[in-house]
Design a protein that fits this description.
Length: about 400
């Protein structure tokens, strides 16, 4: 794959007047579409059996996407700190991200596979299903991967490659075409400060930035990950020769630094603004990497298959320290911190942990063991809301304060 060009736009740019005409009601593909609530249907047939974490969001047919939404019922307490939220979705939907608008901390959206888009106005206590007609025009069964807001301006990306944009808090969503030459599938979008500003990242490590509402994008990384690894194949990076061209997980901190796990989990890579290419690093043990992210003091946390947790400085080159956690052998799939001391970790087979010492030691939330689901994503908002996402349509909401 050829190296990326710094200023080359990958979206199909249009004159500003054309974009405005579509906002005024033209029927072009990029026209704004009202996001409408679906009517609750009668209860559907029993949900499918439990699927694995990865298969839950893949290979789902378009026919399945047409099934009616299930009516939501009452939430049920899981513990003094968490409740299980009943959602109007089929259980085989894989939930993938949550974000709340900047203008109303209780107004947010929940994304998932099968074009799932849910909306809440009460801080996530209840959710209603929404549809975006612009995401249905081509007959694809999109997997919505990531959502982000700055004020009432929001962005959604998904797979097959799709980009949705709103400027009114999600009342309307406009679809913005992406080039077929985009390297990889969009997996992460971040709304940046300033109108029309966002950063989009693909599973092949391409990072693009826009400041004019996606009319043009600029490549932040000047070399593909494949090209980088071809140069460093003999530099002592274990497993680089087995790289399959994509990342399994990508995380971004507020400063715009990235850390990513290779597709096979045998090494990781970091990138900071201003660098021309991703930098590969060896993993700290023989166990495969599971996921990575950032702590409040800008260290990198790292989890392995088997449930180990490590920390290293932001460069990825320092000495790794290991945390105390009794994971019972289940992989830890995500870690998020509420503040410098308080944090949570989640993982396979309903594993849920809490730390109150900045991640040095972790205590298991035993009540979560009853959940027949893998818990793989944690989200905490500036307003103090907290959620855990799991397969089989599991959503936990934090109801108690530490």
């Amino acid at each position: 794959m050829a190296a990326l060009v710094a200023a080359a736009p990958f979206c199909q740019a249009r004159p500003l007047a054309a974009r405005r005409s579509r906002r005024s009601g033209a029927t072009a593909a990029g026209a704004p579409v009202w996001c409408q609530a679906e009517q609750a249907a009668e209860p559907a047939a029993p949900a499918l059996g439990r699927r694995t974490l990865l298969s839950a969001g893949l290979a789902l047919g378009a026919a399945a996407a047409a099934q009616p939404a299930l009516p939501a019922h009452a939430n049920r307490p899981l513990s003094a700190e968490w409740e299980v939220v009943d959602l109007p979705i089929e259980k085989d939907v894989l939930l993938l991200d949550i974000a709340f608008t900047g203008s109303d901390p209780n107004h947010g959206f929940l994304l998932g596979s099968r074009q799932t888009l849910l909306e809440t106005f009460d801080g996530g206590k209840t959710w209603a299903r929404r549809t975006v007609q612009a995401a249905q025009d081509e007959g694809f069964n999109f997997r919505f991967n990531s959502i982000s807001f700055n004020g009432d301006e929001g962005w959604i990306v998904g797979k097959p490659a799709i980009l949705l944009h709103t400027t009114d808090g999600g009342k309307t969503w406009e679809r913005i075409p992406l080039s077929a030459k985009l390297p990889g599938a969009p997996v992460l979008v971040t709304a940046l400060a300033g109108p029309g500003s966002a950063e989009m990242t693909t599973d092949q490590g391409a990072i693009y930035v826009t400041s004019n509402g996606a009319m043009n994008w600029t490549a932040a990384v000047q070399e593909t990950v494949d090209a980088t690894l071809n140069r460093v194949i003999s530099s002592g990076i274990s497993g680089a020769s087995y790289y399959e061209g994509s990342f399994s997980n990508i995380s971004r901190n507020p400063a715009g630094d990235y850390v990513a796990v290779s597709s096979r989990g045998n090494f990781f890579m970091t990138w900071q603004p201003g660098q021309t290419y991703w930098r590969p690093h060896n993993r700290p043990s023989t166990r495969r990497l599971q996921n990575m992210g950032y702590t409040p003091d800008n260290k990198i946390w790292l989890t392995t298959k088997g449930g180990d947790i490590y920390y290293v400085d932001a460069s990825g080159e320092g000495k790794f320290g290991q945390a105390k956690v009794n994971s019972r052998g289940f992989g830890i799939l995500d870690i998020k911190f509420v503040n410098d001391k308080l944090g949570y970790a989640c993982g396979g087979s309903g594993s849920l942990f809490k730390t109150e010492d900045g991640g040095q030691s972790w205590k298991r939330e035993k009540a979560a063991d009853q959940l027949a689901a893998n818990l793989y994503e944690l989200v905490f908002t500036p307003a103090g809301l907290g959620f855990v996402l799991g397969n089989d349509g599991v959503l936990l909401r934090r109801i108690g304060q530490a």
